[in-house]
Amino acid sequence: MEVYKNPNPEDWESLLKRPTASYEALEPVVSEVFGEVALKGDEALKRYTEKFDGISLSTIPVDESEIQAASKGVSEALKQAITQAKDQITAFHLAQKTPTITVENIPGVLCWQEKRPIEKVGIYIPGGSAPLFSTILMLAVPAQLAGCKEIILCTPPNKSGGVHPAILFTAALCGISMIFKVGGIQAIAAMTYGTPQIPKVYKIFGPGNQYVTVAKQWATKQGVAIDMPAGPSELLVMADQTANAAFIASDLLSQAEHGADSQVIFVTTYEPLLAQVAEELERQLKNLPRKEIAAQAIANSKSFFMPNKEAAVALVNSYAPEHYILCVSDEDYYLSNLTAAGSVFVGNYSPESAGDYASGTNHTLPTNGYARQYSGVNLDAFLKQMTFQKLTALGLEKLGETIELMAEAEGLEAHKNAVSIRLAAIKNNNKT
Amino acid sequence: MEVYKNPNPEDWESLLKRPTASYEALEPVVSEVFGEVALKGDEALKRYTEKFDGISLSTIPVDESEIQAASKGVSEALKQAITQAKDQITAFHLAQKTPTITVENIPGVLCWQEKRPIEKVGIYIPGGSAPLFSTILMLAVPAQLAGCKEIILCTPPNKSGGVHPAILFTAALCGISMIFKVGGIQAIAAMTYGTPQIPKVYKIFGPGNQYVTVAKQWATKQGVAIDMPAGPSELLVMADQTANAAFIASDLLSQAEHGADSQVIFVTTYEPLLAQVAEELERQLKNLPRKEIAAQAIANSKSFFMPNKEAAVALVNSYAPEHYILCVSDEDYYLSNLTAAGSVFVGNYSPESAGDYASGTNHTLPTNGYARQYSGVNLDAFLKQMTFQKLTALGLEKLGETIELMAEAEGLEAHKNAVSIRLAAIKNNNKT
Question: Is B323 annotated in the active site?
Answer without folding.
Answer: yes
